[in-house]
Amino acid sequence: MYFVNSQEYDKYTQDDLSVWKTLFERQMKMLPNLAEDDFLHGVRTIQFTANKIPDFKELDQILGKETGWGITPVTGLIPNKEFFELLKAKRFPSSSWFRKLSELDYLEEPDMFHDIFGHVPLLTNADFCKYLEKMSVIALKYIENEHIIELISRLYWYTVEFGLIQTEHGLRIYGAGILSSKGESEYSLFSDVPERADFNVLEILKTPYIKDKFQTKYWVIKNYSDLTDSLDELDQLLSQINDGSLIVN
Ligand SMILES: [Fe+2]
């Protein structure tokens, strides 16, 4: 596939390592009280450390043993069909470049810190992996229908990227978009500005996402099986939308 490349581990510079190290240390100082425990456990399982840029080959070995997943390096944002095909095949697409050291909080497109630090730890959780896989199977069924793919992207956005979870220690983060952002990690849990609502598939399908600033609404699950369990409902809703008996814009 044209967008698949390789990590070229030997080409990382001292600046790349500094970006990884700075962002990793910054997030790991803050996240022990903000991130959901399985994410933190995943960070230990995949042996992330501040002083080493993760090597995709090593991640593949660890994830392979844990859940059968792996990482496929890609050139950047990829088409929906290829994106969902990779997920269905248990391959998480990741960029392999880093943002500039001088622009640590500015990102036009997801870089490797977001893709790897934000997403990979939860790929050690079997329920979460099942969710990605089953969602992709549904997405591929409707891959020619742009509107439906947009709605599925909203569900991905408000769960995989910006999801919150109610735990015995209180409200925590599991969405990678939040976990890889210093500002949004605190804002999503503590700010009075955004709304926080119980997870609801239909409501999420109706909510366009916000790309260039913090979210105004977060959805809260109780556990990861809520996500997988919601996919039958998603499938039913999409089939109604597809045949015109339900309108969602
Ligand atoms: Fe992401």
UniProtKB/TrEMBL annotation:
One of its GO terms (molecular function) is phenylalanine 4-monooxygenase activity. NCBIfam families: Phe4hydrox_mono, PRK11913.1-2. Pathway: Amino-acid degradation; L-phenylalanine degradation; acetoacetate and fumarate from L-phenylalanine: step 1/6. GO terms for biological process: L-phenylalanine catabolic process. Residues 1-249 form the Biopterin-dependent aromatic amino acid hydroxylase family profile domain. It catalyses: (6R)-L-erythro-5,6,7,8-tetrahydrobiopterin + L-phenylalanine + O2 = (4aS,6R)-4a-hydroxy-L-erythro-5,6,7,8-tetrahydrobiopterin + L-tyrosine. It comes from Flammeovirga yaeyamensis. Its EC number is 1.14.16.1. Pfam families: Biopterin_H. Fe cation binds at residues 114, 119, 161. Its cofactor is Fe(2+). This is Phenylalanine-4-hydroxylase. Belongs to the biopterin-dependent aromatic amino acid hydroxylase family. It comes from the Bacteria. PANTHER family: AROMATIC AMINO ACID HYDROXYLASE, PHENYLALANINE-4-HYDROXYLASE. Keywords: Iron, Metal-binding, Monooxygenase, Oxidoreductase, Phenylalanine catabolism.
